[in-house]
Amino acid sequence: MNSSGGKGSMSTASSSAAWKAVDSVPDQFPAGLRVLVVDDDPTCLIILEKMLRTCSYEVTKCNRAETALATLRENKNGFDIVISDVHMPDMDGFKLLEHIGLEMDLPVIMMSADDGKHVVMKGVTHGACDYLIKPVRMEALKNIWQHVIRKRKNGWKDLEQSGSVEEGDRQQKQSEDAEYSSSANEGNWKSSKKRKDDDDETEDRDDTSTLKKPRVVWSVELHQQFVAAVNQLGIDKAVPKKILELMNVPGLTRENVASHLQKYRLYLRRLSGVSPHANNLNNSFMNPQDETFGPLSSVNGLDLQALAAGGQLPAQCLATLQAAALGRSTAKSSIPMPLVDQRNIFSFENPKLRFGEGQQQLMNNNKQVNLLHGIPTTMEPKQLTTSQSIGNINMQVASHGVQSSQNNSSLINMQVAPHGVQSSQNNSALMQMGQPQFAHAPRLPLSVGQPIISNGVAANVSTQNGIRENIRAPGYNPVPQTSSMLNFPMNHASELPGNSFPLGSTPGMSGCISKGTFQEDFNSEIKGSVGFMPSYDIFNDLNQHKPQSWELQNVGMTFDDSRHSNSLQGNLDLSQSVLVQQGFSSGQMSGQNRNAALVSKAMLSAGDSTEPGNPLNASQHLNSLPVDNTIRVKTESVADVTDNLFIDHFGQEDLMSALLKQQQGIAPAENEFDFDGYSLDNIQQDQINGIIRTDE
Amino acid sequence: MRRQLAIMRQSLFDQGYLDEQFIELEELQDDANPNFVEEVVTLYFRDSARLILNIQQALERKPFDFNKLDGYMHQFKGSSSSIGANKVKAESTLFREYCRSANAEGCLRAFQQLKKEYATLRKKLEAYFQLARQTGPLETASRPK
């Protein structure tokens, strides 16, 4: 790729600053718009580049999707819009789309010589903001800036209304006390506190200094409030207005609730589809977990803890889940991680990061792990499919429709309230998050079907790519169709042994491990390895996950941990709003998840065949990671993970050791889900799941 | 010579070898990139030769993998349309239809035809650019009638 020739370095701060505020568009706008073009056809690429330059845009071209993702990750705010071809050899354009949506939340325009209705529709469902038919003409390119503005505008609106925290604030959220109350908002908003009062959009924007559009961040608490409200009203009668009233959160709008509800509903549907169990866990999320966990044979507390995606899973839920899981003890073994084939957008931070695979793919998936977190962004079923097969982490974990706005692809199906996560796509990321995490799977089809098995993150990461690793964490419900099997090289361990995640089999469950525990534990270790998020990149092969999508903002998803912290950071860029990968990062997955995640990571990396053996271990570790349930959706962490993942495949060895350590200390998920969204402590699975995005 | 060039150019349009997309390319040419069109076209022929070869090889393996063939052709078509290679594009569309209906015979025939058109276009454009280089910068592009 050549960097944009025009202004020199990409991400010109000035231009970004210029666009920060929607209403203060600089005069020369849209000149200087920073575009990333991805197309494997060199002829088209060069023509597009020239056309865009002629429009006075800053152009960077890529002929490979993975490169594009890597570039995007490296320069989080370096681009304003992405134009991508649909048919590419290394990764399906839609998967890339999901990843980007999840991780970076940038507007993406799809292109193709194909003008068939179904393809265009696919673009729509995956969240593309436009679709161009080749040959592309100049006129079509001249107006692409509108998408940037539009997105920003929408984001700002959300920001104002809900006081969503921007990426930067995410960290605050991590502390999981990100209450959404007004005071909290202020607290959370580093910069925009005062904005809210003034309701001054502009100021807000400036403060937040982020180009990305802010979204409502569904922190664990907020989500819990939401769930409580829904339960109180009865899922059938729960209408946004009433929910909003019950929740009584200042700054939250009916629209926020409505979209969140939608995702939640999808998630639930998914959960019920996955596991017959009724939710009896307290949180509505929990219930799903049960079900999902069902197969997870031994959803030992670990998983549950981990699952407690984003802290959503209260301890008791975990217990319940675990019990359920144990009761089930069905052979999870083949929990095919239905890792969200779709892009499981694991919003979880974890998921993505966890996959130490550093594979981009994983990351992709991770992204998708948006699952569980908070606001499942556009929960499009598609989204769930982890584009990266990695995402197939059947993170049983809350299969929230982790679809974070837009790219919820491979949502780690966190068992927790499967919000639309999986939608059709392979929610592989079934993160068995104890909590129904709304996986905001922004299009991250986290195929993480990893059921966040409490025990071993049996993340059945079924990456679509065929790596159907059923990471079966004990107790993980095999995530439905983990179509996106994570390519975890770890496919071996199909069954995570009891508590220890048979990560061996479960490929890279590491995706979604709830960050809760992960974070801590993994951080150190997983860093490299787990980084599911990044590992989603591993899915390069898998093509599915949107790596990095794990920016799971899912709070809590353990990505906060070590692993993610590093890599997550990178990914955190994902939808800032979206709690990334909800819960995936929950380190909850006591170690197991992590393992899973790692595994997934590994698997993901498998694409690169990274440490194949290791992943398993990693997964193990993941599982054992004491899921703190502080799934902090750390975008940052996710980002870190991503980076880590990518880069190095996560030193599997490191991961492994980390995991092993984790295992020992599988701390009971403290349920302090950090997630801002859903701290899937059990995100380990998620992570793995995240990684295992199911391909579509 | 300019006139000669203009006539040659016009005939390419009139005969359907090129379409408006070519004009788009011409419009992109400027002082900074005075040979932009030629560069792109050269790149196209180089890259598409590879695709043609792939298709050729795929057609030598029986039974035909129509999906794969369709995939290659899709790429080829995309490329060709981006430079305005009209006839070539039409042949690729035909080929794809045969693929979709799993018509092996049709595919072979269409491919032969496509190769012919491709070779013809190449020759014509080579001649055109050669003349253009001799003539100097091209005048404003004019749309074909």
UniProtKB/TrEMBL annotation, chain A:
Residues 34-149 form the Response regulatory domain. Keywords: Activator, Cytokinin signaling pathway, DNA-binding, Nucleus, Phosphoprotein, Transcription, Transcription regulation, Two-component regulatory system. Residues 180-189 have a biased composition (Polar residues). Residues 160-210 are annotated as: Disordered. The keyword Nucleus applies. Residues 212-269 form the HTH myb-type domain. Residues 167-176 have a biased composition (Basic and acidic residues). InterPro entries: ARR-like (IPR045279), CheY-like_superfamily (IPR011006), Homeodomain-like_sf (IPR009057), Myb_dom (IPR017930), Myb_dom_plants (IPR006447), Response_reg_B-typ_pln (IPR017053), SANT/Myb (IPR001005), Sig_transdc_resp-reg_receiver (IPR001789). Pfam families: Myb_DNA-binding, Response_reg. It comes from the Eukaryota. The modification 4-aspartylphosphate is found at residue 85. It is found in: Nucleus. CDD domains: REC_typeB_ARR-like. Transcriptional activator that binds specific DNA sequence. Belongs to the ARR family. Type-B subfamily. This is Two-component response regulator. It comes from Hibiscus sabdariffa.
Automatic annotation (TrEMBL), chain B:
The modification Phosphohistidine is found at residue 74. The keyword Phosphoprotein applies. This is Histidine-containing phosphotransfer protein. The lineage of its organism: Eukaryota, Viridiplantae, Streptophyta, Embryophyta, Tracheophyta. The keyword Protein transport does not apply. Keywords: Cytokinin signaling pathway, Phosphoprotein, Two-component regulatory system. Functions as a two-component phosphorelay mediators between cytokinin sensor histidine kinases and response regulators (B-type ARRs). Plays an important role in propagating cytokinin signal transduction. Histidine-containing phosphotransfer domain (HPt) contains an active histidine that mediates the phosphotransfer. It is found in: Cytoplasm, Cytosol; Nucleus. It comes from Hibiscus sabdariffa (roselle). Its main location: cytoplasm. Residues 33-128 form the HPt domain.
